[in-house]
Amino acid sequence: MTALPVVLVPGMLCDADVWADVRPQLPGPVVDAEITAPDIGGMAEQILAAVEGPFVLGGLSLGAIAGFEVARRAPERLAGFCAVSTNAAAPTAEQLAAWAGFDRRTRDGEFDSVVAEEILPTMFSGPDPVLHRRFLAMAKRVGPSTFRAQLAAQATRQDAHAAVAGLSCPMLVVSGARDRLCPPEFHRSIAARARNASLRVLPEAGHLLTFEAPGAAAAVLADWLCSLSPLSKES
Fold first, then answer.
1. Distance (Å, rounded) from C-alpha 235 to C-alpha 229?
2. How far apart are alpha carbons 64 and 86 in whole angstroms?
């Protein structure tokens, strides 16, 4: 019997480092997927191409949003879905306007300012210079071109609650209690629609809870993956 792979998908302006403190605690094979396509459908295809056959998906923020599209397109591929720090609703007019402004400023050479002034303040529950530097370094690795593609993809989002409701696989929904970008009520809405969902709220964490509460995040995800073992095996 061989454990199915866990495909980890980062959020906007994140790379595989966003899972670095969690990954070593996870059972079974782990694969990191990238999301660089300029639309949610293309991101979903990037995730589906990361491995062959069924898998467990772990997505954070935009990574989970792309995961919802995987659920819509290929639910039979998912043996489990962990959605972290995310939002299954369609974009609001205010979000669309903000993303267009970020794109315009980034195109005009203000990438560093956009990240530091607009994105960074939404990532953590409070000031932490070490975490701030780590996020800024990660965003710099991702770079302005991928950021603009991810902003374009955000604008192609659709409400994903029906896709969640249609899933038969187990779901784990994880939120930071102090997430200002995707607050716990977003996650309660996701969990309420799923057929088989567990909801966990980490009390002291903000949006990037894998950085801010890595031990708690790793324990929650590892325990859930171990509970899937009868479902996450193939001959």
1. 13
2. 6
Q: What single-letter amino acid sits at 229?
A: S
Among the listed ranges 41-50, 130-139, 220-229, which one has the minimum average pLDDT value?
Answer: 220-229
Q: Where are the beta strands (DSSP E) in the chain?
A: 2-3, 6-9, 30-32, 55-60, 78-84, 171-176, 197-202, 233-234
Q: Rounded to the nearest 10 degrees, how much is the dihedral formed by the CA atoms of 26, 28, 29, 32?
A: -30
Rg of the chain in Å (alpha carbons): 16
Produce one character per residue of 66-91: b if its CB has 16 or more CB atoms within 10 Å, e if not: bbbbbbbeeeebbbbbbbbbbbbbeb
Rama region for 230: left / alpha / beta (φ>0; ψ in -120 to 50; rest)? alpha
Q: Which amino acid would we find at residue 24?
A: P
pTM of the model: 0.94
What's the CA gap between 163 and 88, in Å, rounded?
9
